[in-house]
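User: Could you go from structure to sequence for me? I need the amino acid at each position, not a summary. Structure tokens:
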């Protein structure tokens, strides 16, 4: 039979026993209470596992010792506080002290019943009570609270956990935690008080915490978490301060439950303050022998720019790196900021001062059961014996967290073996780094398909990336393998190798294709925002199953059989979208060339220039992209497998192969050796709750592809650079299966034999 073990009943029992003990002493008369007791014998009864000597040790008394009534009471209480006994009675009988105890039973086993949403494997590690150990009601209460907290963290705050014991023979019990799971208590509304510059919708997009709406109920659930709310306070503060509001503060966060206790209402009370810009920016040196003017070229902050702490940190890092390169050690940069409230400007003076002469004694790493120490050490720019730089340690901590290998990562410094030595402690908690995925996808160009992929971002704990993917669609099949070593030779040098095999069943053409390519590469930074990649490649292509009705151009190209080429090339990219000084704008520049040799010799050049900015208090995002490519052969000629095609990623509003050069007789799409595209678009909210993840957009695409090359006697349409223009509207939907984009297009300027389409759906990507 199960017995309730509520803590309140236990405490009442203890109080009753204490009162009874005092009444026994009172019955002996006031004189007895005042006098001392001396017992010649102490009899202990009821104990089975606990030895007499142990009980006497708990009591702190011995035969012949003079004891007062208060000391007897304290002895009984000490025995109870050992946590080994269900009841303790201490009774004086003449010159004999009788101690009667009832031992707590031993736990036979521990079960959790009624749990469905959280498995035993998730809950049992939270239970500190253990089988074959003494049952303790206080510990059982703590275990109950731990299980209840676990459900609360999952949003089930109304879950009820009841501990019960089942009595067995030989003073044993089974401990059972009965769980009555409740529904999820979601966040119904997130609101803000005091925000004037940014709308509630914009601020909600900053937060980790999300509202639960009609669509989110179907897709996913967002629950209240105190830790997440604490992060949200930090995110809001960083958001405002990076946009020129240094006085911003979250005054308080009010979290309340609805009357039905089925939803949370969260209100952020904020004070924005006024918007500031940078005023006067200067460098001054208080470091002997160092001229501050020598470091002015490292400054990126400019007068009149919107204030943000991030560019100040960037400037300090640049100055410190420049000082180290000049052999100046223990230089510290102190940014001294003065306010000009009338002009709403903050003046910044970088003061170079001598820092403490402290060295790194060692770096201790704990918690990494899988990840090798060197992977974590590679995130530090300092090693044992180098001067200690607190800023560098903070940056290393950010880099460690940015690896994505760890659920938690803490980096702290403490004094080493002497005041001039520092030990850096790195404590990490590893998280999952691999995913195995089976699923389906859809693209308007290739149709529906199945996908199986495996990705591992920390292969064998070495920080290496490994991915393998097999996909099949209505018109193509693809096998891809990739491997990346981000710290090749222990440097910021990324080595990669990519392999792909692809076959296509061209439903809109009278031929199929087969392509294999393997490409090793090395990439490395060449500037603060620039990176250079060099690569080599081996590739073979083939045209197969060519119909007799296919274009003569295609048949001539297929007659060449398999074409094998080697190539070398490079790609330079400059990207400020994530690291630029302006959080609301960024640019991406990319230029690359590939030089082919083998069965044919060619130069393939591609270029892209893109920009993005946010306007109207960051409610509207504007994007502009200019992209182009050119393929030129010195020996041989291009084939349909080599030339450019404008798919929906490059030029929206056309069927696959629906724009560009084509055979006049067979209508086969031939692609072109050159292309150029300009894309303009705007993305904006639709007034729907932000938790739906739905926004709208408009776009205008203008571009062309041309130049098939030598065609013999075949007649080719649109072989000149004839541009097409397409306009449209978009619906963006962020879902758990990925960001979807629905495009509704209208042709403005197209050619008669083009194949436009009015609707397509794609995975949404940035430029």
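Assistant: Here is the amino acid at each position, in order:
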């Amino acid at each position: 039979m199960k017995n309730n073990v509520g803590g309140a009943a236990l405490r009442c029992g203890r109080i009753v026993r204490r009162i009874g003990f005092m009444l026994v002493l009172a019955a002996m008369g006031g004189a007895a209470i005042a006098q001392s007791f001396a017992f010649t014998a102490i009899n202990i009864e009821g104990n089975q596992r606990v030895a007499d000597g142990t009980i006497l040790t708990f009591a702190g008394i011995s035969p012949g010792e003079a004891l007062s009534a208060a000391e007897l009471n304290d002895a009984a209480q000490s025995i109870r506080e050992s946590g080994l006994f269900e009841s303790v009675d201490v009774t004086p009988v003449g010159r004999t002290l009788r101690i009667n105890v009832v031992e707590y039973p031993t736990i036979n086993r521990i079960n959790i019943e009624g749990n469905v949403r959280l498995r035993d494997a998730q809950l049992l590690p939270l239970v500190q009570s253990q089988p074959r150990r003494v049952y303790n009601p206080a510990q059982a209460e703590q275990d109950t609270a731990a299980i209840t907290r676990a459900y609360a963290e999952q949003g089930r705050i109304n879950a009820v956990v009841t501990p019960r014991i089942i009595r067995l023979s030989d003073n044993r019990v089974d401990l059972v935690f009965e769980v009555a799971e409740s529904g999820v208590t979601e966040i119904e509304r997130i609101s803000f008080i005091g925000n004037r510059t940014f709308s509630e919708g914009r601020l909600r997009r900053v937060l980790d915490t999300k509202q639960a709406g009609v669509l989110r109920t179907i897709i996913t659930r967002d629950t209240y978490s105190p830790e997440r709310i604490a992060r949200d306070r930090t995110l809001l503060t960083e958001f405002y301060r990076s946009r020129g509001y240094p006085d911003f503060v979250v005054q308080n966060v009010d979290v309340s439950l609805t009357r039905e206790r089925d939803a949370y209402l969260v209100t952020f009370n904020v004070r924005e303050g006024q918007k500031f810009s940078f005023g006067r920016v200067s460098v001054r040196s208080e470091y002997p022998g160092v001229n501050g003017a020598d470091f002015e070229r490292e400054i990126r902050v400019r007068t009149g720019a919107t204030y943000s702490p991030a560019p100040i940190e960037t400037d300090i890092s640049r100055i410190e790196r420049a000082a180290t390169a000049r052999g100046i050690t223990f230089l510290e940069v102190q940014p001294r900021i003065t306010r000009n409230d009338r002009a709403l400007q903050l003046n910044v003076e970088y003061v170079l001062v001598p820092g403490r002469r402290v060295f790194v004694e060692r770096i201790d790493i704990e918690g990494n059961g899988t990840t090798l120490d060197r992977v974590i050490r590679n995130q530090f720019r300092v090693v044992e014996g180098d001067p200690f730089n607190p800023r560098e340690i903070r940056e290393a901590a950010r880099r460690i967290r940015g690896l994505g290998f760890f659920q938690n990562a803490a980096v702290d410094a403490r004094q080493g073996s002497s005041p001039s030595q520092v030990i850096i402690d790195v404590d990490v908690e590893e998280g999952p780094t691999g995913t195995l995925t089976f699923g389906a996808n859809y693209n308007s160009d290739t149709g529906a398909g199945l996908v199986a992929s495996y990705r591992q971002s920390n292969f064998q704990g070495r920080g290496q990336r490994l991915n393998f993917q097999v996909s099949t669609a209505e018109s193509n099949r693809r096998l891809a393998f990739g491997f990346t070593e981000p710290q090749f030779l222990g440097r910021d040098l990324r080595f990669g190798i990519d392999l792909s095999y692809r076959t296509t069943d061209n439903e809109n053409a009278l031929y199929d294709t087969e392509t294999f390519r393997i490409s090793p590469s090395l990439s490395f930074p060449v500037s603060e925002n620039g990176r250079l990649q060099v690569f080599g490649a081996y590739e073979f292509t083939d045209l197969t199953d060519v119909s007799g009705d296919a274009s003569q151009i295609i048949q001539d190209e297929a007659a060449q059989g398999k074409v094998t080429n080697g190539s070398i090339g490079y790609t330079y990219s400059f990207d400020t979208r994530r690291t630029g000084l302006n959080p609301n704008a960024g640019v991406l520049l990319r230029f690359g060339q590939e030089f082919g040799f083998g069965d044919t010799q060619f130069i393939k050049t591609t270029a892209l220039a893109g920009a993005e900015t946010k306007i109207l208090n960051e409610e509207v995002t504007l994007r502009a992209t200019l992209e182009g490519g050119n393929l030129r052969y010195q020996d041989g000629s291009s084939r349909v497998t080599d030339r450019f095609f404008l798919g929906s990623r490059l030029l929206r509003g056309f069927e696959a192969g629906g724009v560009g050069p084509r055979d006049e007789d067979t209508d086969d799409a031939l692609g072109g050796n050159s292309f150029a595209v300009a894309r303009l678009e705007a993305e904006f909210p639709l007034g729907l709750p932000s938790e739906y993840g739905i926004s709208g957009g408009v776009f205008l695409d203008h571009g062309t592809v041309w130049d098939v090359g030598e065609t013999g006697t075949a007649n080719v349409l649109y072989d000149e650079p004839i541009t097409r223009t397409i306009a449209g509207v978009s619906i963006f939907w962020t879902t758990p299966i990925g960001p979807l984009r629905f495009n509704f297009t209208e042709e403005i300027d197209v050619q008669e034999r083009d194949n436009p389409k009015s609707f397509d759906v794609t995975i949404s990507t940035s430029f």
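One structural detail worth keeping in mind: The chain has six domains: 2-103, 106-180, 186-271, 277-354, 359-430, 506-763.
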